[in-house]
Design goal:
The chain has 36 helices and no strands. By secondary structure, the protein is mostly helical. Among the domains are: about 230 residues, Leucine-rich Repeat Variant; about 190 residues, Leucine-rich Repeat Variant. The longest helix is centred in the last third of the chain and has 37 residues. The protein starts with a helix and ends in a 10-residue tail after the last helix. Belongs to the SDA1 family.
Length: about 800
């Protein structure tokens, strides 16, 4: 290794060479020299060599000072100018390294070794300066992130906030940039192994930084794989309580983190915010295509397209957030049952505060509900916390609801269920506690309806008459649930109309296997409606034709028809009589229900027209028989000519909703699009019915898969009743709304005080008109002046009375 004296002598020799080459000896600043070296790299090789020697000499001097124990707590205190000079030279060489790859090929290694060996003894400013130089080399792809990942993770543990943020941002952005175009799995796996090994260490600081880095990369979806998710979940079993709390909070609040604004998506969010201000009216679309010059129309079209793209992007983001697809790192658990059992055992041994225990309870419940696990000891453990005076009782009840699903035996959850009923829902309980209890019972019964029996449901339904609005709303929501799930458990007046008497909850372990394409019944319903409309029109035409034929036959040869009718057989006559009797019974029932026809009128009708009824009955027999024969012939023809009709007939007899005839059992892309549209309409109709915006529509209870994905919040179980405001509160709200509003000014006053240019309307008056328009305007004004003069000369002023 060279000495300082040798470095000084070499610098003098280099300077003599500069002077002999004819260069000026004026001293240049590093920034000026850097710009000149970037413009002409070959002309400044000697200056580069001189600066390299100066950097090496200052590095040797710095190492000697560190070896002689001149270091203090904050860094080297002997000569601060040496540290500043070393940082400036390192940054300068990092800037010009891409232009001199041969001369500076050893510089990145020297810089990294310096930071790795003496990072704890370096001053804070010098550490940040050297780290920035190394980050610059990484950004220019001179140094690989795989070589420096462990170094930057180590720099985050030094306690320097500025350096920690700098190193953390560099790791995140380097990995993001590496996976931006395509993902290199081998390289990602090597980097993940470094962080996973740090996470498993007992050192709390190093493990915490590794966990924070993994969580951030997973949240940004740079490392959105099973290995990262399982590593984050395994941090819940770390011996350090801080690591466990950090992992629990990330797993529980992942849904909230997903909805937060990300720094990477700030541009798209700004565009969506701007797009909300653009109103795409018919006028703007018309102006963009038909008004103005070609250049102005081009600009308007471009602006319109940008607005449309931003609106579509906003709609796509909203649909992605509001759709049923749910993601959590818990979805990637390899052994969900083992994970939940380990968490439960740690919960039994946990000596932390109640908040930490509550986080463990919520995570166990989330895992059990998401993967539909069977963890029977968990329900027994929760019984000791189910009390109205318990801290955070709503979150505990939400965890109970989350842990219930249809795969758990109902007899194992019954003690917990009845404890909620007995502790919260009784006459001496507060209205807030009763509301929370009723809402919790409703949510549990939505997932496990077999827990409810008839007596208990009727007792709970009586609370609908409570004077407290929150209690009555909760009771009515419970009644509304069982109107769909099992209405026979309710009292008759609470069942509602229309009632499905066959509605029953599935028994324990029952599974409904799909025998058809999901949503195909919507197509069959629409197709049946079209068929009914077409058949109605055909029947109307056909019935008129049949009636004409019947009238002709009745007038020409009645006797021949009667003789032919007697020869057809007694069986047909019996069938016709039975049909007539059924029709008469139906008509009598309709008359009785409507109450429009009285018994006296019926007697009068029967006594007055006995003779006419005989002839009418015979005519009805003949016409009904002919219709039956014609319909039967049509059915035979349709069955012979169409195999689809047979399939449809078989589907109706089997009780399944048949597919439309045009598909032959094979659905096309248009059919699937139609199914999607009909599903969306059906869901919209159900939501309108839930909010009272539709007259009659059945509220569909979500299935078990959707309920397992649904995240239950404890705030939804509380009372949400808007209290009546007093007059003072209303006035305060009115005044608060007027603060941002300016003082009132009339339009004329605003126009008079206007400073600046003219309005568009005023400018239109000053526009130069074409000659034809000017001449017509002048001619009109002359005609009007003539008329005014004529009227003024011939005006009658009256006659004096005394003349």
């Amino acid at each position: 290794m060279s000495s300082p004296g040798h470095g000084a002598s070499s610098a003098v020799q280099v300077e003599e060479q500069f002077l002999s080459a004819g260069r000026s000896s004026e001293k240049l600043s590093l920034s000026t020299l850097q710009s000149k070296m970037k413009c002409d790299p070959e002309g400044y090789v000697l200056e580069l060599l001189r600066l390299c020697d100066q950097f090496n000499s200052s590095l040797v001097l710095f190492e000697q000072q560190a070896a002689m124990n001149f270091a203090s707590i904050t860094g080297i205190g002997g000569d601060p100018t040496v540290a500043k000079d070393l940082g400036d030279k390192a940054m300068f060489l990092a800037q010009v390294t891409p232009f001199y790859p041969k001369h500076l090929k050893d510089f990145p290694q020297k810089l990294a070794s310096l930071i790795r060996c003496a990072s704890r003894n370096l001053p804070s400013g010098l550490r940040c300066r050297l780290a920035q130089a190394l980050i610059l080399l990484i950004n220019r792809k001179i140094v690989d992130i795989g070589e420096t990942l462990s170094l930057f993770m180590e720099l985050q543990t030094l306690g320097d906030r500025t350096l920690k943020k700098l190193a953390f941002d560099n790791v995140i952005h380097s990995i993001k940039r590496m996976n931006q175009k395509h993902k290199n799995e081998a390289k990602n796996r090597a980097l993940q192994n470094v962080l996973f090994s740090m996470l498993q260490e007992e050192d709390e600081v190093r493990a915490k930084r590794a966990l924070v880095t993994l969580c951030e990369l997973h949240r940004r979806k740079d490392w959105f794989d099973e290995r990262t998710a399982n590593a984050i979940c395994s941090a819940c079993f770390h011996p350090a309580p801080r690591i466990m709390k950090a992992a629990l909070s990330f797993l529980l609040d992942y849904e909230k983190i997903e909805n937060d604004s990300d720094s990477d998506n700030s541009d798209s969010e700004d565009e969506t915010k701007e797009s909300t201000q653009v109103i795409l009216s018919k006028e703007t679309i018309y102006k963009a295509h038909h008004q103005g010059t070609a250049a102005s129309k081009k600009k308007k079209k471009a602006k319109l397209e940008r607005a449309m793209r931003s609106i579509k992007r906003k709609q796509r983001l909203s649909t992605e957030r509001n759709n049923n697809s749910y993601y959590s790192p818990l979805n990637h658990l390899k052994d969900a049952q083992g994970f939940a059992e380990k968490l439960l055992s740690r919960l039994h041994k946990c000596n932390e505060t109640f908040q930490v225990k509550l986080m463990l309870i919520k995570l166990i419940a989330r895992t059990v509900g998401l993967h539909r696990l069977i963890l029977l000891d968990f329900y027994r453990f929760l019984q000791k916390y189910i009390q109205p005076r318990q801290q955070d009782i709503t979150n505990l009840l939400a965890a109970v609801v989350q842990a219930c699903h249809d795969m758990v035996p109902p007899n194992e959850v019954e003690p917990l269920f009845y404890q909620i009923v007995n502790e919260f829902i009784h006459d001496r309980s507060r209205p807030e506690a009763m509301t929370v209890g009723l809402n919790a019972v409703r949510e549990i019964c939505m997932r496990m309806p077999l827990l409810m029996n008839e007596d208990l449901l009727r007792d709970l339904a009586l609370h609908k008459k409570s004077h407290e609005k929150g209690v009555s709303i909760a009771a009515r929501s419970l009644i509304g649930l069982f109107r769909e799930v099992n209405p026979l458990l309710l009292v008759k007046k609470d069942r509602g109309r229309p009632m499905d008497a066959k509605a029953r909850p599935k028994s324990y372990g029952e599974v409904s296997a799909a025998t058809d394409v999901p949503g195909a019944e919507f197509l069959s319903i629409v197709h049946n409606d079209d068929d009914q409309e077409g058949s109605d029109s055909d029947d109307s035409v056909g019935s008129g034709f049949d009636n004409d034929q019947e009238n002709d036959l009745m007038t020409t040869n009645d006797d021949d028809e009667i003789s032919s009718d007697t020869k057809t057989g007694e069986s047909d006559e019996d069938d016709d009589l039975e049909d007539m009797e059924n029709d008469l019974e139906d008509s009598e029932q309709d008359d009785e229900e409507d109450g429009e026809v009285s018994e006296q009128e019926d007697d009068d009708v029967h006594t007055s027209c006995d003779d006419e009824s005989v002839g009418a009955n015979s005519r009805k027999k003949d016409s009904a028989k002919k219709r039956k024969i014609a319909d039967f012939d049509d059915q035979l023809l349709a069955a012979d000519t169409s195999l689809r009709a047979l399939k449809k007939l078989a589907g109706t007899t089997m009780g399944h909703a048949p597919l439309p005839e045009s598909t032959d059992g094979i659905l096309s892309n248009e059919d699937f699009k139609r199914i999607k549209e009909l599903k969306e309409k059906h869901e919209a109709r159900n939501t309108f019915a839930q909010h009272g915006l539709a007259r009659s529509a059945t509220i569909k209870v979500p299935d078990s898969d959707r309920l397992s994905l649904k995240r239950v919040d404890g705030a939804t179980l509380e009372v949400h009743v808007k209290k009546r405001q007093s007059k003072e509160e209303k006035l305060a709200l009115v005044k608060a709304g007027r603060e941002d509003r300016g003082t009132y000014h009339s339009k004329t006053a605003v126009k008079q005080k206007k400073t600046g240019g003219l309005s568009n309307r005023q400018k239109e008056h000053k526009k130069k008109m074409p000659m034809a328009a000017k001449r017509s305007k002048i001619a009109k004004s002359r005609v009007e002046k003539k008329k005014m003069n004529q009227r003024a000369g011939k005006q009658f002023r009256g006659r004096k009375a005394w003349k």
